[in-house]
Design goal:
Blueprint (H helix, E strand, L loop, with lengths): L4 E4 L2 E3 L4 E2 L4 E4 L2 E3 L6 E4 L6 H10 L3 E4 L7 H13 L4 E3 L2 H14 L6 E9 L5 H15 L6 E6 L5 E7 L4 E7 L6 E8 L2 E6 L2 E6 L4 E5 L5 H11 L5 H18 L15 E2 L4 E2 L4 E2 L4 E2 L4 E2 L4 E2 L4 E2 L4 E2 L4 E2 L4 E2 L4 E2 L3 E3 L4 E2 L4 E2 L18 E3 L4 E2 L4 E2 L4 E2 L4 E2 L4 E2 L7 E4 L4 E5 L20 E5 L2 E4 L2
Parallel strand pairs: 6-7, 7-8, 9-12, 17-20, 18-21, 19-22, 20-23, 21-24, 22-25, 23-26, 24-27, 25-28, 26-29, 28-31, 29-32, 30-33, 31-34, 32-35, 33-36, 35-37
Antiparallel strand pairs: 1-2, 3-6, 4-5, 9-13, 10-11, 11-12, 13-14, 14-15, 15-16, 37-38, 39-40
Helix pairs in contact: 1-2, 2-6, 3-4, 3-5, 4-6
């Protein structure tokens, strides 16, 4: 049974779960008619929010979340999609951002000038660091109307302390979060052309460029009232922007501290790794390589230089990928697969590593090796049955199923695949003269299943 705590005659809060009321007096002279059947306000700890949001949306309620919806970008995107599918609003309004905007607005309009730098400090013993970073990003979203910034991150291996430096088009910002500080403290410092504003738990202080100082007690804030007021006024939801920036901060943290637990990187210097990609320990990634959205690189994978790995790719563990390879979306390279240099894997092509799998029988000691030699191309949706070798510069047609070794330069098609011709280094089907029309290279067929270049 849920127990309510009364705030006043119009407000009811369910601690740790959600807030509902038959009628909401949001501000003087204005009332809303949302009730328990149509609206829930989530005010739970961060780890509990996704399940509560999902439950409320699936039961037909719109949801206001007093904070970020989830500390995982994948989860945040999924919850946003669920809200759209159910034709209900999911609005993430971290209370800190709402309160900062309403509290500091009068000062920003009174001689402060253009914002040049902003510093946010959030300290306290045993805080959820990522929740606090999300709150800090909400403050930035409320005070700086600009796209997500470039950022750099400093963090301890345990991520109990985070220092995030952000560069916006017109100003810089710093976000400091510590879960080791003995006392709870929140502070915002803003510097503009016309002066400096400092806001902490107790006081707002404005120091003008001319040397005048004024102080005002921090007004009491009811986070439920502030969030509902913002919701009713249609304040933009910063939730997904915050989720993307938060994931970028996580990514930078992992890159700077590969020994930390969780999503780790062994060597990504000079590579581009999207914030949503997941890199396990012991991975080596060569310079100028790129790994894109939602891909997962498992332990002890070695990726060469100038490799492009598309969206939703899984590689590993213990897989080797050579230089200059291109692996398109939705490809899985399992243990036992090796790609030499210059291999192309088309979208959704399939590799296997066991010939006779059963869900109830463990066959990890029966993994078979698959070798894809230099320059080979594998078409979209082709299947490579394990235990075979694909020869250098061979060409596997889209949808083909490879069940045996493939000769160098062979063009393979069908189910099961059969050789239907020969391909040149440049990826052009050779005619009867076995001469590449693009590069002029000449070849000769020395046996029914063997072609070689004439030097």
């Amino acid at each position: 049974m849920l127990h309510s705590t009364r705030l006043d005659k119009n407000w009811a809060v369910v601690p740790g779960d959600h807030w509902t009321a038959p009628a909401l007096a949001i501000e003087e002279g204005a009332a809303a008619t949302w009730d328990a059947a149509t609206l829930a306000v989530i005010a739970a700890p961060l780890p509990e929010r996704p399940a509560l949001i999902r439950q409320a949306l699936q039961s037909g309620k719109s949801v206001i979340c007093l904070g970020i919806a989830a500390d995982s970008l994948v989860e945040a995107v999924a919850l946003d999609a669920l809200g759209r599918q159910s034709d209900r609003r999911l609005t993430c309004l971290p209370a800190s951002g709402v309160n900062a905007s309403s509290t500091l607005a009068p000062f920003l309009a009174d001689g402060f000038g253009t914002l040049r730098s902003l510093r946010i400090e959030r300290y306290g013993k045993d805080l959820n660091v990522w929740d606090e970073v999300g709150e800090g990003l909400a403050i930035l979203a409320a005070l700086i109307a600009a796209p997500c910034p470039n950022l750099t991150v400093d963090a301890t291996p345990s991520t109990d302390i985070l220092s995030v430096n952000l560069r916006y088009p017109a100003c810089t910002a710093q976000l400091l979060v510590s879960a080791q500080h003995p006392r709870r403290r929140e502070c915002i410092t803003m510097v503009g052309d016309g002066g400096r504003i400092t806001w902490d738990n107790e006081m707002v202080t404005f120091e003008s460029a001319a040397g005048r100082t004024s102080t005002t007690p921090t007004p009491p804030q009811n986070r439920y009232v502030a969030a509902l007021t913002a919701f009713r006024k249609g304040v933009p939801d910063p939730g997904l922007d915050i989720a993307y920036t938060l994931e970028a901060i996580r990514s930078e943290t992992r890159a700077h501290h590969p020994v930390a637990s969780g999503n780790m990187r062994a060597s990504v210097t000079g590579a581009t790794v999207h914030p949503t990609a997941w890199i396990d320990s012991g991975v080596t990634i060569g310079t100028d390589s790129s790994i894109w959205h939602f891909s997962h690189i498992l332990s002890r994978v070695q990726i060469g230089r100038n490799v492009v790995i598309g969206q939703n790719v899984m590689i590993g563990p213990d897989v080797q990928v050579g230089d200059n390879c291109k692996i398109q979306n939705n490809v899985s390279l399992y243990k036992g697969v090796t790609l030499e240099d210059g291999v192309f894997c088309g979208p959704s092509c399939v590799f296997t590593n066991v010939n006779n799998p059963r869900a109830h029988i463990e066959r990890k000691n029966e993994f078979r090796h698959t070798l894809v030699k230099r320059g080979a191309s594998i078409g979209a949706n082709a299947t490579i049955v394990c235990g075979n070798t694909l020869g250098a510069y061979c060409f596997i047609a889209a949808g083909a199923v490879i069940t045996s070794d493939v000769p160098d330069f062979a063009m393979m098609a069908g189910v099961p695949a059969r050789r239907i011709g020969w391909m040149s280094h440049a990826g052009v089907k050779l005619g009867p003269d076995l001469t590449c029309p693009i590069e002029g290279r000449r070849y000769r067929q020395v046996s029914p299943d063997r072609l070689e270049e004439i030097s």
